[in-house]
Amino acid sequence: MLPRKLLLLGVLSFPLSTLASNKVAGVVFWLVGMSGLCLTYWVRRTTASPIDATVAKKLGVLWVCCAMPLALNLVAVLTWNLKLSAVVWWPILLIPALVTAMWVARLQSAQIQWALALGIFVAALQEPLLVYFSSGAAPKYSTNWIVHATALWTWLILLVLAMRRSSEPPDRLLFLVLGLGLLIGLFMVGSRGPALVFPMVIFLLFPWLKPYWKLIGAGVFTACVLLAWLLSRVEVSPHVAGLLRLQHLFRDFNQGAVDGGTLKDSLGPRLEMARLAADLIVQRPWFGSGPFGFESYLKALASEGSLTLTPGFQHPHNTILSLLVSYGVFGLLWLVAAVILLLRWAKGICAGCASLICIYLVAWAVFGLTNEVFAHQANVRVFAYGLAVLITICLVTTPETQDKSSNFLATDVKN
To answer: Residue 6's Cα: distance from chain center in Å?
Structure first.
């Protein structure tokens, strides 16, 4: 009983640990992930009846799906003679272990919802403080504001999907937390990309709400857009401007500031980075230039004196462009094949799982419009944990997998 409760505590603490420093989040992720690996072995060894070939194959396919991106990352690092620390996609490999850990811990849909809500609530309180520190210099106890924003919006998406998937009506307090998270995430979020999924969250909520909630939601959405436009027209103090991050999203449609003859901030440098990334893709289209190819290319341009950007950009601040630069067309097709295999696996596990995973992946694709979401290990941990939670939500809310764990793991786990 005690080990299962400790495992349950570890699984549910991740939304909170993500908001702490990257080291804390990494330790929690490792503990839960390694526990899942040990449990996978233990389940196979202690089951009363051996895992049948069909179930083993299904679980094995998930491992293959998650190993494919990591293999690509590892091969690129070895090919370009980079340090092994450049392999940042390893958390993806632990997704099946995380699912196993959550399953053995007998995680319930309501527990997932409240864990996500607690993470959203703490993130909503913490976000203004983080952005107030300006220019990304977050306090030592917290992760940086880009990862913080990605985590906040990931938990918001997952909470909406968990609430919609559950057969039980959600608590009203969950709606209040969800609304608080949406408002904070829209106006004070420290990264522009995640805030772009706001319409997606509204779209997911709208058909589900009662008529009067739809009317209130439409009014609030219109008021937020108008308020954002008005705030973008008003000059305020630097600290207040830092808190009202949505102003930056509107002002990004300018061509960017110029500092010492180089572009910095706003849309201008992003368009320039996209142009430079396209040039590099044309030079090495099939296999890419490696994980740090874009940074090396900018350094070469800077040494020639032909760089108009502020030096120091490690990637083109767009996930698709970054993947093409680093891994080329073949690398991108390899990732697409992994996604297709994952969706086919999810379709055979339980009803509706594939569609929820599609929503989750589209949300992360939107995150990646203004940044490279897979360039840093902290972001990859959030992605991996979120996908594992989503698969677990599907399993615990499907009637045929609620009563018997044998449908998924072919085992009867006892406390």
So the answer is: 25
